[in-house]
Design goal:
Mean pLDDT: 79
Distance between the termini: 22 Å
Low-confidence stretches: 116-132
Order of helices and strands: HEEEHHE
Oligomer: single chain
Radius of gyration: 15 Å
Strand content: 15-25%
Helix content: 25-40%
Number of helices: 3
């Protein structure tokens, strides 16, 4: 999942799980700051995100280079697939849609930092993440 030409990256592959959980539990994303590393292919290899919700703060990480322990989320996906479900009854579509809308803001944060010459380690605040 690190091929730039076909998309991919840690955010798309495993980042959806902690992001969706944070939104489901704490509400929509108001502000975020993402810091991470890009792979040689241009996709994110790992990322740490700090987020502000209406009444709370959250943080999470996704990585291809570290085991962050999303085993429970992956098991739930496998259970749903085995049961022929299109979605998990534990998390509604609304939370997932809000999570996916934030992806482009997070990736833009890393790409912007790379273009201003900060090298492989970079980050930028992302405000007003609603709708990407």
């Amino acid at each position: 999942m690190v091929l730039g030409r076909t998309g991919g990256g840690a955010l798309l592959d495993v980042g959806i799980y902690p992001l969706t959980l944070a939104i489901a539990l704490l509400g929509e994303l108001i502000e975020a700051h993402a810091v991470g590393d890009l792979a040689a292919t241009g996709v994110d290899a790992q990322m740490v995100v700090a987020m502000r919700h209406p009444d709370a703060l959250s943080s999470w990480a996704c990585s291809f280079t570290a085991d962050l322990g999303y085993r429970l989320e992956v098991r739930e996906v496998h259970r749903c697939l085995a049961d022929g479900l299109m979605r998990s009854p534990a998390v509604g579509w609304e939370s997932t849609v809000l999570a996916v809308a934030s992806f482009s803001s997070f990736r833009d944060s890393l790409a912007f930092a790379a273009t201003i010459g900060r090298g492989a380690h970079h980050g930028q605040s992302v405000r007003g993440c609603r709708g990407g």
